[in-house]
Amino acid sequence: MNILTFEHHQAPAEGDAGVLVLDNTADPRSVSLAGVQRIDLNFPKFTDGRAYSQAYMLRRRLGFKGEIRATGDVLIDQLVQMARSGFTTAVLREGLKADAAQRQFDRFKGFYQGDASHPAPHFADADNAAASAAEVERRVAA
Q: What is the dihedral of CA 104, 107, 113, 117, to 10 degrees?
């Protein structure tokens, strides 16, 4: 995940068709994503999680491949869940440092469940790796 400090974030220019700023109350299915390269989703306060649902819907249901940016009251504690929900960039709340954010990701090396960017659960990856290894052994033996 790309982490930006509040000071390094640039709001989209007026009329920039490549950036869509989506309000928390908007249904992502109701807007055209044609030509959109970045979608900004806002957290008006850290307890408002509607942007997580929007990001997940954009990635998994609508297949959006561009940048999804979290803006607003973004805290370091939220970053891992944001990445798992489909966000690619987070703009930290004013006063927070980006270097402290990496420690949050270092605490969690992996997850059992699937998520927006990697929908298969961990055990499925292990099963697929075992099946691939068995196929290689079969071919070598043949």
A: 40
Annotate 34-47 with b (16+ C-beta within 10 A) or e (fewer). Answer: eebebbbbbbeeee
Q: Model confidence over 42-92: pLDDT tens digits?
A: 999 989 999 999 999 999 999 999 999 999 999 998 998 999 899 999 999
DSSP assigned state of 116: S
Full DSSP string of 32-96 = --TT--EEEEEESSTT--HHHHHHHIIIIIS---SEEEEEES--GGGHHHHHHHT-SEEEPPTT-
Q: Tell me the two tokens of residue 99.
A: 């270097």
Q: Which of 72, 97, 127 is nearest to 5 (CA)?
A: 97
pLDDT at 44: 95
